[in-house]
Amino acid sequence: MRPRLDLYPGYDVLAKRDGPSWNAKTREVLEERLAIGPETRRFFDEAEWSTMKSLAERIVPQPADRGDPVPVAALVDHKLATDTRDGYRNAEMPGEREAWRLGLRALDAEARARFGARFHELGAWAQDELLKLAEKGDLTGAVWEGMPSKLFFHQRVLADVVKAYYAHPTAWNEIGWGGPASPRGYVRMDFDRRDPWEAAEAKPGREDEAYQENLRVGR
């Protein structure tokens, strides 16, 4: 019996790359995304980058033994470098680029004021304490220049970081997602049903069965 390594053992969504599940546009988008390495940076400056990477690690911590982690900070940087916007924003918030630059500077300033070091130099506990205060809107120093820390946390940090993580095939493998539904689509939409080209979850005692089935999913 193969030991259970994860919920979808043997599954690799990229096995669908050249199959009928994805069209040319999907492949093009994924190739661009996969070309972004963990240190790919075009928007953030060096100081902002250190803070951004530490922030991403606290919001979506990844397994220490993951050989190829999702480049979350770099994906957020790419979004900002290409000026890819949400299409809407809260009236209390500046534009996305300005909000990120302001918010990262503010987090560093708050870290120095409370703990005597920049955000990326703090331990996980202190970083989390600052983020909890931001989440509640309790970071109100002049350095925020009127931008509510609560809105920055919820509408920029959480939104951009979590979306960046789940836009990557590594995260798709983790949750058993098959990727964009074009052109094949999804048919069996009822509870506890799945199409044959979707990943099989490893049920207790049936891990090896799921593993073998997931090896065939991309074919």
From TrEMBL:
Enzyme nomenclature, EC number: 1.-.-.-
Protein name (database record): Gluconate 2-dehydrogenase subunit 3 family protein
EC top class named in words: oxidoreductase
Instruction: Give me the ranges of the annotated region Disordered.
Output: 198-219
- Record has Oxidoreductase as a keyword: yes
Q: Which UniProt keywords apply?
A: Oxidoreductase
Organism whose genome encodes this protein: Methylobacterium brachiatum
Q: Which InterPro entries match?
A: Gluconate_2DH_su3
A molecular function GO annotation? oxidoreductase activity
- Bias (Basic and acidic residues) ranges: 198-209
Q: Does the keyword Acyltransferase apply?
A: no
Classification from the root reads: Bacteria, Pseudomonadati, Pseudomonadota, Alphaproteobacteria, Hyphomicrobiales
Q: Which Pfam families match?
A: Gluconate_2-dh3
